[in-house]
TrEMBL record:
Species name: Pseudomonas sessilinigenes
Domain Spore coat protein U/FanG positions: 37-175, 201-340
SMART domains: SCPU (SM00972)
InterPro entries: Spore_coat_component (IPR053167), Spore_coat_U/FanG (IPR007893)
The protein's name in its UniProt record: Spore coat U domain-containing protein
Length: 345
């Protein structure tokens, strides 16, 4: 009986020992698993993807804000954030540049604003750290929401209207300093198991190609009415106004209309198959204004503001129009034609 009791006691001790070891092993396994999860949440700086506004006419640059963006502004993160970002966590981006905007070939500058998302809600001030951890920006990007796929931070841009600039390629190189500090894993009872802390600088190129363009004001020509061709008066004092890209040299041409005479090149208006010949002449003279070679008019030939384009100011070209009197008077009717004005740079 005594021996049996001792053996039972031994068995009880052994069973307790096994139970105690199993409990310790289970706890260590849980801690190791949580530490492994925290090790997956890592951020780093990476090479950026340029932000391009594409090709935009000088008129639109001046009058309408143009959008652009980059899918990668230099910060990449992989890992799953196990809780909402705390007030002590941050993802700072400080953006600086040696210029105040995109600079073109003649020194003109196109200014623009940087934004943290694809709206104008969160503008980024140059030289001031912007925290992407605030306003749920990081959360909405899902930057820390995938344990296996690296995701990058985009940045959005919008030009400031009012820039009167010459045509050409405009570029700016931004320096983006990233600094982050956040809890990379949550343990039991919300305890932070470790922090991912780091920083780095990447450069971001922003560019736009500005193309030549013009705003054209060309009123219709009306000869009025007359019983015979010799009674039509010359239409004089007519003007065509052009506001073309700053610094642009250009020529202006007028097409031969829809019903030109193949021999002699006269323009003609038409009504029910009948024609009335007329023409348009440069300034107040008798030189025909056409669309080819010397028949065109140069920007230096403008009566008002001759020379290269002004961007915001108009250049004025005078002309006169006459009905040819050496033709037979056609039947009564309303005679029409359409002439195309083209600007060549």
């Amino acid at each position: 009986m005594t021996v049996a009791t001792r053996r039972e006691g031994v068995r009880k001790v052994d069973l307790k020992g096994v139970g105690s070891k199993a409990g310790v092993q289970g706890l260590l396994g849980l801690v190791a698993s949580l530490l492994a999860t925290s090790a997956q949440a890592l951020c780093s700086t990476v090479s950026t993807v340029p932000a391009s506004f594409g090709t935009v006419s000088s008129i639109l640059v001046r009058t309408t804000s143009q959008p652009a963006s980059t899918t990668n502004a230099g910060l990449s993160c992989t890992g799953a954030l196990l809780s909402l970002l705390a007030t002590t966590d941050h993802f700072y981006a400080t953006i600086t540049s040696s210029t105040s905007g995109m600079v073109g070939p003649t020194g003109d500058v196109i200014n623009y604003t940087l934004y943290a998302n694809n709206s104008t809600s969160y503008p980024i001030t140059r030289g001031t750290a912007f925290d992407f951890a605030r306003n749920s920006i990081i959360d909405l990007l899902g930057l820390l929401g995938s344990p296996t796929v690296a995701k990058t931070v985009p940045i959005y841009l919008g030009t400031v209207t009012g820039s009167n600039v010459a045509a050409g390629v405009y570029t700016e190189n931004l320096s983006i300093f990233w600094s982050w500090n956040y809890c990379s894993g949550i343990g039991l009872l919300g305890v932070c198991l470790g922090r991912d802390i780091g920083s780095g600088t990447q450069s971001l190129t922003v560019n736009m190609t500005v193309s030549n363009d013009c705003v054209i004001t060309a009123p219709n020509i009306s000869f009025g009415s007359a019983p015979v061709v010799s009674a039509f008066a010359t239409v004089s004092g007519q003007t065509i106004n052009l506001a073309c890209t700053k610094g642009s040299a250009y020529t202006v041409g007028l097409s031969d209309g829809q019903n030109p005479i193949s021999v002699g090149g006269r323009r003609r208006m038409v009504s029910s198959g009948n024609y009335l010949a007329y023409d348009i002449f440069k300034s107040a003279g008798t030189t025909r204004w056409g669309s080819v070679g010397s028949a065109r008019r140069s920007s230096t030939d403008a009566e008002v503001n001759p020379g290269n384009g002004l961007g915001t100011g108009s250049q004025v070209f005078n002309y006169n129009a006459r009905i040819y009197t050496d033709q037979n008077t056609p039947p009564a009717g309303t005679y029409l034609d359409n002439v195309v004005l083209d600007v060549g740079f």
